[in-house]
Amino acid sequence: MTVDALTDVVGLRVGHATCTGDGWLTGTTVVLAPPGGATAAVDVRGGGPGTKETDALDPRNLVQKVEAVVLTGGSAYGLDSASGVMAWLEERGRGVRVGADPAHVVPVVPAAAVFDLGRGGDFRARPDASTGRAAVEAADASEPGTPVREGCVGAGTGAVAGTVKGGIGTASVVLDSGITVAALVVANSAGSVIQPETGALFGELLQGRTPYPAVEVHEAAQRRLAEAAARNGAPPLNTTLAVVATDADISRAQAQKLAGTAHDGIARAVRPVHLMNDGDTVFALATGARPLAEHPLALNEILAAGADVVARAIVRAVRAAESVDGAGGVWPAYEELYGGR
Question: Which helix (H) or strand (E) holds 215?
Answer without folding.
Answer: helix 215-232
